[in-house]
Amino acid sequence: MTSIIRDKLKLLPDSSGVYIMLDKQGAVIYVGKARVLKNRVRQYFHSSPKPSKVQAMVDCIADFSYIVTPSEVDALALENNLIKKHKPKYNILLKDDKTYPYIKAHMKEPFPRLSVTRRIKKDGKYFGPFMGGIRCKDILAIASSVYGVRTCGVSVGKIAKKPCLEYHLKRCPAPCAHYCTEEEYAKIIENTLSFLSGNYEEAERVLEEKMRAFADAEEFELAMEYREKIDMLSKLKLKRITAMPRDVDADIWAYAANGLYACASVLVTRKGMMQGGRNFPMQDGAADKQEGFLSFLIQYYTTHGFPQELILSEQIDDELLKAYAFEKTGKRLEITRPKLGVKKELAEMAAKNAGEYLEKSVSAIAHKSDMTKGACERLQKLLALERYPRRMECYDISNISGVDKVGSMVVFTDGEADKYEYRRFKIRTVEGADDFASLKEVLLRRLSKLGTEEEARFPKPDLIVIDGGKGQLSAVKEIFDSLGIKDIGLISLAKKEEEVFTTAREESIRIDRRDYSLKMLQRIRDEAHRFAITYFRSLHSKRNLSSVLDDIEGVGKNKRIALMEKFGTIDKLMRAEEHELAAVQGIGKELAARIKKYFEEDL
């Protein structure tokens, strides 16, 4: 324990809040919340035995800070925001945060419509999530075919609009054309909401009637279309848990950990129907099991809507989670730990899923750790880097004969591609094919953001990787020296022999080709090259398309832009049919024929 920590521990308040653990470089390595900051933070520095992951974190703590909050619920929300911002090394991070789709009924509109969304707000009724092979667009197709509910976003105003194809296909009563009153539509939406709530009998009856009618009329394609809709309804009905009431909306959670790794499993039920389940692998970096699981649930329900009920087998701070849910939704969350019945069986199923997933995936998780965080730790040791290379940035330049010069920046965080942080650059000041000068321009533009307000969007990297040898490294080192940068690591990776050059020594460093740290450097280098090439091809294709169109009589600037926006590349334009060309604004049949003839002659 450092003297800084010892002095700060004496000053900790009795209030609730969030504490932030820092390593010797000042990087955030853990964020936690506490009902009483003084008690919670001191626990980390007691001599009592701790799980290996927690002890590893404590060994890295060089300092800490804290933020006092009005309540523990506020601390919970702030903790979640800080975890998302800093992605601390020792927090449980929900990386596989894919959200499933919901069907939204826009009840605040006079003629409510249905749409598909992945974000839940307090502005309508939501049904879902839909998973396990059930597609929202199929549900909407059934709803519009049977009940005639609106699925478009056309506004209904005082001036009547022309009815669209959906009206003529009898899939919408055309309230936008004033063919339907609010009272008439209210009955439609009432029946639709009943259907979305799980009452499928009426829908199945109507679909079967329509299928038979089309079959009798020998319109077999339409009959097959309705047959497919009936099959979709059958899939939904099979998901019904017969022993569970139809009004039960519950997520059933289980959590398993082995000291090094952990996983959470969820089974989702809506309206008494099993929607499916998911497993979430994670590193068990929390100070204790309850804290880790609660933190995970908060992250999960930031992007997923709370159900009516959570069925848990683990002990957590129920009241805190309920308060957080109420603050987010305005509704009371029920948390149960069943002892008997179908809910107990579901809880046991979730627990079995979690246990099996942890057992079968732990080796894969360990392997992934070796290739990511483990590779970063090993790279720091092999290259004698001052900082753990948590955020690595790699740059590449792409052009052909100095035309359409572009640069790419890719980012790896803890050894994994962080694609939201990728950036691309058009080279502005360099004439001709000068990769050194282009690289200098890109780095100057990137590094000039350090110490400015934009640093929040472009955090300072721990290590910059350059594709090349000593020459490229020296070029970038000049930029570092001119800007006075001394606290960012800089290396280059020469492709031919995969030698690593650093600014600390003249000789190159050869890393065993089987070493995960070298494989990680190769991954980030290759990813930077791929990203640069992709951007270059996009620009080059558009520029070439524009040049070709200059040669066609009658294609001026505005028409050229319209064609570029429509087709994007030369290949697509050359393959376009005459009617597709004529459909572009300003082209018409005569000019479309001329364009088509031009490409046919050119071929």
Characterization of the model:
The mean pLDDT is 81. Helix 8 runs antiparallel to helix 9 (220-238), helix 13 crosses helix 16 and helix 14 (435-447) runs parallel beside helix 15 (470-483). The chain has 20 helices and 19 strands. The strands form 4 sheets. Strands 12, 13, 14, 15, 16, 17, 18 and 19 form an 8-stranded mixed beta sheet that branches. A 5-stranded mixed beta sheet has the order 9-8-7-10-11. Strand 8 and strand 9 form a beta hairpin. It starts with a helix and ends with a helix. By secondary structure, the protein is an alpha+beta fold.
Provide keyphrases for this structure:
single chain; 603 residues; alpha+beta; eight-stranded mixed beta sheet; five-stranded mixed beta sheet; 18% strand
Reported for the largest beta sheet, the result is: 8 strands, mixed
Taking the alpha carbons of the first and last residues, their distance comes to: 76 Å
Mean pLDDT, all residues: 81
Helix tally equals 20
The oligomeric state is: single chain
Bin the helical content: 40-55%
- Quickly give the structural class: alpha+beta
Question: What overall form do the CA principal axes indicate?
Answer: globular
Share of residues in strands: 15-25%
Task: Give me the Rg, rounded.
Answer: 30 Å
| Number of distinct beta strands | 19
Query: Any low-confidence stretches, pLDDT <50, length ≥5?
Result: none
